[in-house]
Design goal:
Two copies of one chain form a homodimer. Chain A is built from 15 helices and eleven strands. Chain A is of the alpha/beta class and 365 residues long. Chain A is globular. Chains A, B: It comes from Mucilaginibacter calamicampi.
Chain lengths: 365, 365
């Protein structure tokens, strides 16, 4: 018997999800890690952390692993660590530690750790096994599922990467309990996106909930939505593009902020801005009603701090958008909505349209 | 009607081979490149060359491509260009040229160009299409087929890479006609290996032929052998390991020479040494007869220059072998022969055994 509402939901409803040849564990997920290693017949294993997860999350994992012996690879916290130079550092440590093809890499951390660790593992000796133990809400509901790995070059996000599935994902609600509010909200943006692109009911539930404390059930629901989408289209040929809603503009604003701001935007804060802009484009181009645009705008503006977009930034933002992986033939490509709960992919947007949407956001102050 | 023996063989027998979801073209292969691009609906294409193939081979390709517009990426010739730093250079050029996910990379060159280009393409924006146009005998009979891509870090060969199939391979005999003798012999070593591991008749044919001028038929035969092996075991779980015969010691000698010698050994020269040593280990461990050991030794010593191995080199050679991808649990792993035409995988060799085999080679002077 558990005592809190959240925990009882976890215990009652969160069955293991089947993904692309791997399992996503929810119940007592950290204990599952130990079982997985035992059954995996690995020659050895390595844990990749950042300085924060090394401090706050590794002890929880260590407790479950008992006497198991492993080497630790630690990177700095923050998006800067996704640069190719850090990836080379991880490769060199695997070499120095004598990792072989039967080694396992456990990525214990947020999206930077899982994206970078997944890429490093998927290319080390042409590929060793890896699993994700996501420790932030954002990485639990987004990065850890779907088999995308990636690193940055010259601050271009995920410009280099592979599609490689982890061997398992372990989503432990325990980690969320100590996260700062800003990190929780960073993940909430992706959860709201899941509702907006394909589940109006889930969107309604979320907007009426206290999103500073998402329940285990909500996390599970978001992972289930994302898993369904990526299972159907693992290589992003069609419906997986739905997950890019808010991300063409959001990624650009995030990159801009990373380069220019001392205290840069979180992923979720940037994606929230992107979703408002792209909801505006949806209203202009793909039939989203004015009422729904206003509803989306209100919910997101209520949750996320306002970020001052100025006209002088437009050129740089457009330049970043032009380098986006999702583009074809030099055209900037957005996933939009036709209504709440229904996405519309492959919309080419002109510079003028994109700027108008940025100005819409700027006018909300 | 053609006039030379080689050319008529090419015309009569060299049908397109089917590999792992791609074709290997032999007849009029360069013209096939043009047809492939036309049918591929690519947004654009890029050609990767080194300074030599840019000078000697690109004009032949250009002739077939007509007015087609492409951007050129050129690297220095030589194994040093397989370092991660050069790979980053290729990625940055693809970014600067505005390559998108529908772009095609054509790797025009030897094994360095195809290994590096294949890796760069397989990871750029999580993977763009690439094809190989191998211009050396070595790359025609070895690197271009099988879907291995790879780059080096700290002179550790292919320590980073992926298994990614090209979309096509175009093997044009024309390129071989202008190759220097030493480069031809570098490729011949791999052809001899194909005979040794699985076709005694082919080995007999080769040892009685003038290997300074392998025929088109021989090239075709070697590609067909390699293709059969990699089709059956693309990820090197079992029979593909047969192709590693000569390579545990050969790679170590090659790496040693690359680091220490002004005029370093070619791949084939190093692999010939590796095959002699590993034939000795086969005689000691897996039942190769003394007669066959002597036969292999004689053929290879006749073809390749003697390289002075000294006892002082052993520690460094063993150190390099220990970092070999093929090892498991710290043990050095060799593919050996039980007789000519029959391989035997996963033989763990002790340092003493390996040193003894190096001394066997050294004694042949």
């Amino acid at each position: 018997m558990t005592e809190t509402y959240n925990d009882s939901l976890i215990a009652d409803t969160m069955e293991t999800l089947q993904s692309n040849n791997y399992n996503i564990y929810f119940n007592d997920a950290l204990a599952e890690v130990a079982r997985f290693i035992e059954q995996g017949k690995y020659s050895r294993f390595f844990v990749l952390t950042d300085e924060n997860t090394g401090k706050y999350c590794l002890p929880l994992l260590r407790e479950k692993l008992g006497d198991a012996d492993f080497d630790l690879i630690e990177i700095n916290a923050g998006e800067e660590s996704k640069d190719i130079d850090f990836c080379i550092g991880v490769w060199k440590m695997l070499i120095d530690f004598g990792a072989d093809r039967k080694s396992l890499l456990i990525n214990l951390g947020g999206g930077v750790v899982s994206d970078l660790g997944g890429f490093a593992a998927s290319t080390f000796k042409r590929g060793i096994d890896f699993v994700h133990v996501p420790t932030t809400l954002l990485s639990q509901v987004d990065a850890s599922v779907g088999g995308k790995t990636g690193i940055d070059i010259d601050s271009i996000k995920n410009i280099i990467g592979t599609f490689t599935q982890p061997k398992a994902v372990f989503i432990d609600y325990e980690f969320l309990k100590t996260l700062p509010a800003r990190q929780i909200l960073s993940g909430t943006a992706e959860m709201l996106k899941h509702g907006l692109i394909c589940d109006a009911e889930y969107w309604s539930l979320l907007k009426e909930s206290d999103l500073s404390q998402p329940t285990g059930e909500m996390v599970y629901k978001s992972v289930a939505i994302k898993n369904k989408v990526v299972l159907e289209d693992p290589h992003e040929r069609n419906i997986r593009k739905s997950l890019n809603f808010g991300h063409t503009i959001g990624h650009a604003v995030e990159t801009y902020s990373l380069i220019n701001d001392e205290d840069s935007l979180s992923h979720g804060e940037a994606i929230a801005i992107g979703m408002i802009c792209e909801a505006y484009l949806s209203y202009k181009k793909t039939g989203l009603s004015l009422d729904e645009l206003n509803e989306i705008t209100d919910v997101l503006m209520e949750l996320y701090p306002f970020y001052q977009l100025r006209d002088e930034m437009n050129d740089e933002l457009l330049e970043i958008m032009k380098k986006d992986k999702k583009n074809l033939s030099g055209n900037i490509n957005c996933t939009l909505l036709s209504k709440i709960g229904q996405f519309n992919i492959d919309n080419i947007c002109t510079s003028d349209e994109l700027i108008e949407s940025l100005q819409y956001y700027a006018s909300l102050n």
